[in-house]
Amino acid sequence: MSHVSLMSTVDAVARIGAAASSAASVPDRMIEILDQLAALIPIEGSMVSVVDPVTHRRTTVTTSGYSTSTEAYLNSQAFHHEMIEPFSLPRRGAPVRLRDLPVDPMSLRCVAEHWQPAGLLEGALSALVTSDSRYVGFVDVSTGDHAHPSDEAVAILAHLLPILANVVDPLQSAKRLVSSLTGDCLAVALGGDGEVIALRGVLEPGMLEPRGDLLPSVTRWLGNRVSTAFLWPTPDDGWYACRAFRCRDYVVVLAPRALTHDHGLTQRELEILTLLVDGSSNEEIAARLWISPRTVRAHVEHVLAKLDVPTRAAAASRAMEDGLLLSPEVIAYVRSRRR
Q: Is the pTM of this model over 0.85?
């Protein structure tokens, strides 16, 4: 590179770093980054897509120069199977140009049906992979010149990819939230299909079982709220006090810690307290639990005494505040485990 082009490169990289760390929205930051990247690559089409950690669907962060049909194809499972998986992009850690592929580019649908008819002759496709090896999306840039991107531009882009991954990573807001939690809390992100991603601490074997019921339970408790609290069983017949938070891009963070004060409530009393929160009457609770209304009244009296509150409404308020709630999945699981 000449002195002038070197200075331009340094300036573009510096501006990309500044844009990545700004307080602007993710799309605005990516637009600025691509604008600066254009100083190194004559970009005529571009797209950044992010992988939803819950549904695993790909959605556009920003795009320019591509038709609606091309954008839809790049976000499709077909494109994932054609370009992302076969060439191991999430494991390469480097951009791939058409001329780098081990196959004839024209044999690929994305090239033959989308890029080449639009006059896009070259480009670079890069997986966005975080430092902990999570594939969070991809960035694609296309040019109308077989000579670009150059080897130098590809090398620079490779060094920038971890920064770009950090920008689009939906768990970034989750990690910021985790940093504000007390030190006795573990923290995990809940993904699709029962996936549990550790954010702080190490999950011991058997923790947070049954995992397949975690997301449905948390979703039920959260409803339209941004946070909620509830109990989850420990492997030794105790309870975790859990708080769940809804973060950006539908990521849910769960922060469990060992429950240090359960007010001496039995599991049956916790079940009844949970139903009090739902507004159930003694008769409705009796029907749900297959016990008599008289037994329910006795349990309610015990609950009020143990929580040191005067009314059912006050007990319900304390239960929601302290997270003394059991989901139907937890109740069924604990009963089966204790048989």
A: no
